[in-house]
Amino acid sequence: MAGPNPGKTKRTSESEITLKIAQIVAILIAFFLASSYLVYVFESRSPSPLILSFPDAMWYTLVTLGTVGYGDVYPVTAAGRIVGSIVIVFSIGFIGYSIGRFGDYLLENSRRKFLGMNRTRFSGHYVVIGWNGLSRIVIKEVLSAGFRVALLTHDEKAITEVRSVFPDSKTLFVTLGPYEDDTGYERLNIHEAAGAILLCMNDTQTLITAIRLREVRPDLTITAYIENSELKRTVVNAGVKYVISPNEIVGRMVASATFEPDVSAFVEDILSTTTESNDIDIQEFRLPDGHEIGGMIFHDACELIEEKTGARLISFSRAADGSFELTKNPARNDTVKSNDYLIVLVNLVTSERLSEYLRVPQGRRLADTPRRPA
User: Fold this and answer.
1) In 3-state terms, what secondary structure has residue 72?
2) What is the pLDDT averaged over residues 201-209?
3) Three state DSSP letters for 225-266
4) CA gap 294, 284 in Å, rounded
5) C-alpha angle 335/339/344, rounded to 5°?
6) Are 369 and 300 in contact (CB under 8 A)?
7) In what order do the strands lie in the sheet with 195-198?
8) Using one digit for the tens of pLDDT, what is the confidence trace for 4-60?
9) pLDDT tens digits, residue range 218-275?
10) CA dihedral 194, 329, 281, 284 (to 10 degrees)
11) What span, in angstroms and rounded, lies between the C-alpha atoms of 355 and 347?
């Protein structure tokens, strides 16, 4: 059974908590002053009172409420003792109530934190919507690439699993909510995310979520997984930049493995994030302004990068009309320019060397995403 809908469930806000505390304090002060006044009035009628003034009555009420009871002053009249008895009963009940409310607050606060009801402070991160077996693989790859992840799931039970698989809260934030709800997007800090990855349970949900995300954040780069490859154009029209269909990919891999198995094995290997020094990977690095490679022809850039780092430059991507245009098979004399994304074949060692040489991390960042002209 799916968890509660936090977008529609009443949640305790900081202002509501402050109001409740203020109400409790006001009730306590009013009761304290009223009790002190009544004790003083009743005791002042006694021929031999121990409570001689209003401050004495306030002192008696205070130590009684605090369950201290020094016994230095106390009421001697019947009416005063009745008021004192009420104060004692009230103090016991009030302390019990306060402890209970404080415990409820701690439990509620702990539950809200567990369910990710507070907004993440991540920026330049990737938002993943949907938790399933594929999500586990995708998040692992994104984290391995050095990015942080904010995950939205509508299944409360899934949060326990997510936290057991990815226990580091400094790199992964998870929250509970419907996939098309603005409140959930706010908690994901969607406006400062580098991109979103949709891994919903079905293609209909993926389409609805993509449309809603595009409304909330028009310039967001969205990647989506769909089961039905025939819906690819529809999903792209909904605002998704990159659409992945397993049937397409698996079909090509199966065919390739049949008559060119080494090619299939090579592709499978480079699709994974490098974790061992001999793992092969394809990565992209932005060429920063002022770097010596900027302005070189492709052939010379290839030789210099391999000489300096051991990485092999195989292609590049360039900003054009609010997007990036990939040059799949560059000619020898094509020019590499600043802010191009260099597509390189690396292992763990050469990736680190190239990052140091270019003075940028691998991958695409939010600030590097081109904006379409207004």
Assistant:
1) coil
2) 93
3) ECCCHHHHHHHHHCCCCEEECHHHHHHHHHHHHHHCHHHHHH
4) 16
5) 70
6) no
7) 172-176, 149-153, 126-129, 195-198, 222-225, 242-244
8) 444 444 444 566 667 777 888 888 888 889 888 998 888 888 888 888 889 988 888
9) 999 999 999 888 899 999 999 998 898 877 777 777 777 777 888 777 777 776 665 6
10) -30
11) 12
Enter the tokens of residue 167.
Answer: 């226990």
Contact between 162 and 151 (Cβ < 8 Å): yes
Phi/psi at 120 (nearest 5 deg)? -75, 155
Distances (CA, A) of 79 to 41, 85, 90, 187: 10, 10, 17, 57
Angstrom distance (rounded) from CA 209 to CA 215: 10
Contact by Cβ (8 Å): 243, 232: yes
User: What is the side-by-side order of every strand in the sheet holding 312-320?
Assistant: 281-286, 341-346, 312-320, 323-327
Residue 134 to residues 16, 33, 54, 268, 366: CA-CA distances in angstroms?
40, 64, 72, 16, 24
Domains of the chain: 14-114 (1.10.287.70), 126-249 (3.40.50.720), 274-368 (3.30.70.1450)
Pair 270, 319: CB distance under 8 Å = no
